[in-house]
């Protein structure tokens, strides 16, 4: 579709589109009239010709009919276009310049109930809508206020309106999760003193006496458990019973969020008059790119798709797989880095002066240093891969030549989401479920690629490392995202308008300024959703390791709403308005994440956190007759005979600390449940190991079943559409049916009166299909 | 709605309905004309007046208008009723008797696209539709043929058509499951010889030497393991690795069944022209019972429901809960019976002559006798409760006074299904998940109500008992169901027509015969669905215990289709035709059962079957260096010191067999993993116990996650609507839109030509809403 013809007939500006396809119809562009405007009060938002006097009031556009005859009168609103628009002509004295950008891209919605039209300020006394939006919506100071959704919808169209409605609702729901998460964190802080095992670790007579086996080959020496004292304390903040509660709470919160959103969406759908809007109407619009490539295949309705589609399709998916493999390779690279670097850190830190600092020194363990640096490297890799992949994804989707915009967006959504899912979450998955799980034991360590010894977790648990990883990736992504979103368009606009900015106001007119703004790309909204959905994944999938995640997300989103608003009102041209009655494919993805999150959280609580071993110890293996946590640390560490450690795993000379040589140490401890040396089954798993394993698995089963049952019950209990909306919709349907019936009746009466009373009372209405009519007639006459 | 007026005007029979409600519209009844029928060839299915000459050809019915004016001409098909029906009058010379039953209950579908009509044989040369159905569909000899679905739909309406389509599809899908199930069973038979543990049980030097602890207090004596030899062999048939495979297979089969049914349904929906049919149109019809009770509340649209609804609602649910408690009480009663009776059987059988019979005697153990009699009692109780509850459920649903038929059926569905679910399955759940799980051990047995000692499973496993229970309940239900379904209507018809049967053919006319048939109650289809859904539950929920269940169901269904067909064509009056585009609420229930079945099967395989302990033994606790099953029986039985058995649990004098006294036996064995006497932790669980428990739980987790992931992936992969159906539907929508648009355009052209060319080119069409029109006009004129 291209603009091919502009002519000025007397006082009317006519912009004609050439459309080769009969199923595309152009809606009217209506620009409201400003009556008697004083030149001083001229609204900046009105569109003027260069001279600043002649205002463009209406534009009439029309299409060629199939038979080549040009329609000169208003194309009347078709039956299904009941929106009461009318297009008129108003004088624009002379032949002006071509104003090419007004009509550039109008949404074409044949068959939709309301035409979308492009309003500008009605008269100068009213504020322009855009300015109202800027004033009441885009300012950060109004962050606590509800968004003016109806105005947003009116100005930007339903699609963008739905996005902001969703974002607002999500932020609102997040606040509940954030409060509960904060309470869980506070519980952790409040019960800090009950943390018996950390006390034991820090205690000189318990933790100070326990000699641990080296954490890496050759470069690591023996170490005392008490060095992990502080990280054990930190760990407790996130690894306590409140976390289990919070994991279950979030499982149900997610369900409530999705269910209530469905209701909110249904209400919006009703209020914004989208109930009868069918996505298919938009789907029928072909993409221009598709049309240019496929014109010669027009006739065949079934095999309209390009012939070489299959080949390309496979190619495209091969590319996606390639990229995902690339990420996995990067992740493995990072893991290898962690394994390789750990030994180095361990070796360096042994003698480093930080060991002497009381406050900082105890915090910076080799594990911590490795974790943080690896997470940062990871984050940088994620960002670079993301940046590169974005372009690749768009290019391969272009290559597939999807038929419609909806199809295009869906194809891209799958590709991008799959990639980003792997990209953002895989490092967290590694830390949560693989790190420290396949370590082996001092006599028989497990190696990655036969080269790097697998990482161990700290005696405090792996959970704190997952938390670190999560915080770095999540916060980093959010900060970076906001900077990119706000700064990039601003810088671009600043660059584009650099020459014009010096002109006086009268010369740098409003429409030029508007034109110089960034265009809002068709995928702009897609990126906004993607960002939010990835964030949603962070706060649900790994919430058991970090109850403060919803709070971080909440703070980000409060900012995000206003940044987006600011961006929309000041940095972008008014985007092409489009209809949408839902958030589309994202709803399905959110549901998938919600289901998946229950599984990940159950596994995190049982396998990443130390909750279950502690509970099993407390109730089944405790010392004395009372159930207590005392002695847990000693119980949770197995004993290994130093003399049995293979030579290649032993620390090199000089790597061991001094105290090791000064005392006669024959055994070291490691984190596992195995029989001590000398036992008949030495170094095989003890009964406690199997007991704990059974408890872990039982916890997963119970948690998953309980949460899923509650989830589905809640989802079943909450109707998807509020009852009043349902009733009103039904009432309207009923009225329409009533109306249609009356109308047909009226028509038939006229018809019957014309046909005369001779065929009485057997009348076969003319509208009936002829073949059957004849059959019935013959019956009548026999 | 009632028939209040029948008059004969010249040659026309007019039956008038009085409808108080304007939203109810009567469709036409069309009875086709038979032209020039020889009296000899008169089709029996044509409707004649008593004299046998005057045939009823057309009946015209019409309704009063709102303004009281009677319409005399054909009520033309309304706009949305595009079906090309026309009603004419044909002579029926004299005033005949009133034929009251023809028009008794016509489906009233205002606004639907096709009117439903009641066809009789077109002419005498053609067979009547009912006769064709009887000939080609209702005979058992055509069981391998496809059902004539289109004819069924034409004759009985869409609702019944969909039922038979579903039943046929279900039977078809069952055949695959039956074949795989049979293969699994054959695998069990083929690998019979590899069953090492049964050999060990039967072996005189192993099983013959193992003395087992008494199974009940006082009345049971010590016994030798070899007595369970034969039941152990039987058990292997169902409790082998093929069963695990089959459980997983069925999890996926269920998904495929539901997904493919969706597609089939979508295709039927298209072919039967139900795409645009909205359930709501039927929902708008109020039930007469509701209307009579609520006439005075007509005005208030919102609070139309009876005021005392809440009270009744609670009452109704209280009744349901009461009945479910009643079932549970019955189940507990049966369990108590089992516990009580077992001792008796054990005591009797000890000396009974059956012990001497080689073939039968070894099969009839006290466990077996208890199982079978308990299952039979259970079955009888189930049937009696069912019979009683049916009436109660209908009564309490009547008391709730639901507004519409759909609402009525939904309310009843929930009540009936909930009840039947508990009624039919609870005994199976007891055997699968409770029996033998909470036994305790010889020193500390667990008691129900402190009185009856909990049942133990045989050393062969509980699975064989579940199989017995399942077979008895399932087969019993099916046989009983078929007898009831076929015999009861036949007997009733036989009774009703007893006087008329002796009349000659000419006097006992066709319509009288038809009138004497049973009426097909509005809930008839509901019961058919319920029966099938309960069967579906049997073959999915407990399939891991009995791979032949699908085969049994298949055989039943092949019969069921024809029995239903025979019943419909010969034993019932033609039912009221109704529209339906799906199987309704049952779809949701089937989905629920499908999800639930994965969980139950996973639990059956791990906890009811002996699979996991055997595998753990084979790979972790086997004797010697090779993984073998030898020694499993000895390993799986713990040792108890006879002298430590409490007095109240010891067998009474004379209950022990003779060999017990003749040898010096100090220990007995029981089924558990506990330390032997003399061990430091004697009678507490061994490591193997925790190891097996962990393996069981791990199996549940793995099986559930794998099956659910595959399930959802398959469900996502298979589109709900076949692509060609989708394309055709879209195409039709498109054509309708095109047509509507052209029509409106035509209308507008006429309008414009009438208005004259003076308002050129700015025309504001008259159809636009007036308020906005004025606004736009003012713009034009300024």
UniProtKB/TrEMBL annotation, chains A, B:
Q: Where is the Anoctamin transmembrane domain?
A: 152-732
Family affiliation: Belongs to the anoctamin family.
Would I find Transmembrane helix among this entry's keywords? yes
Alphabetized InterPro entries for the sequence: Anoct_dimer (IPR032394), Anoctamin (IPR007632), Anoctamin_TM (IPR049452)
Q: Name one GO cellular component term.
A: plasma membrane
Q: How does it sit in the membrane?
A: Multi-pass membrane protein
Q: What is this protein called?
A: Anoctamin
A Pfam family hit: Anoct_dimer
Residue ranges of the Anoctamin dimerisation domain? 120-149
Any GO MF annotation of the entry: protein dimerization activity
**What's the chief localization of this chain?**
membrane
Where does this one sit in the cell?
Cell membrane; Membrane
Keyword annotations: Cell membrane, Glycoprotein, Membrane, Transmembrane, Transmembrane helix
Where are its TM segments located?
Answer: 163-190, 242-261, 315-348, 368-389, 533-555, 697-718
